[in-house]
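Retro notes, structure queue

What went well: the backlog is down to a handful. What didn't: a couple of records were mislabeled last round, so from now on we paste the full input next to the output in the thread. Example, using LRC72 protein from Vidua chalybeata:
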Amino acid sequence: QIQDLTFLIKNYYLTELYLNNNELTDISGALKHLCSLQILFLHNNELKKLGKTVKELKGMISLQTLNLFQNPLAYDPDYRLYVIYFLPSVQLLDRKLVTQRERESALHLYNPKRAWVMQSIAFGKRVDTSLGTTVGSSRCTQPARRRIMPSVLKWFGNVQVMDLLCSSCRVPFEDPEDAVLVRATTRSLMEFSSVDWNKLATCQERRLKNKAEEPLEKLTVQFR
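Corresponding output:
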């Protein structure tokens, strides 16, 4: 029948805390100092405010196991994703392992901009395989064939480069250097510009008019 947690104010080094089956209605200001907590049971209480409860637990970077079921806050339709997003260290929530798919869903729900950025640069989608292996469920019964790469000469400005065309995009390279060469010759155009900022007057110099204005020179280099 515990309702007040002020008696925990000096227990800084607790790693496990079992407060389930009590009458707690609010934990604000009572647990945030327990930064070493790894296991916290708060199920079967009367906690109603999901935001305030999760905010109290945000500083627990070591928290791995958390139970909040059988509280009024657990009936929120987005309760589980909310806890997963704002308490990323939790691995076992309400006796159920947190999956990678749930973490991705929580990110899309509560931070769609970051999710879009991560998806656009393919974070989490890289397949770590060697150049001599194939990706997929089926196994290759034949030895890897070397790509046949007929060369086509092209002119880019005053520089003649070789464009390597692969005859089969599904056959892995036998020589890693071939893959590097193909990637190097098929890069998109890159442009870099530089400015000599020493020739540009500062705000103070402009204000005092101690330095004459010089035309700004910008050097632009394009290369592939």
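Agreed that this is the format going forward. Reviewer comment attached to the example: The beta strands are 16-18, 39-41, 65-67, 92-93, 96-97, 151-156, 159-164, 190-195, 218-223.
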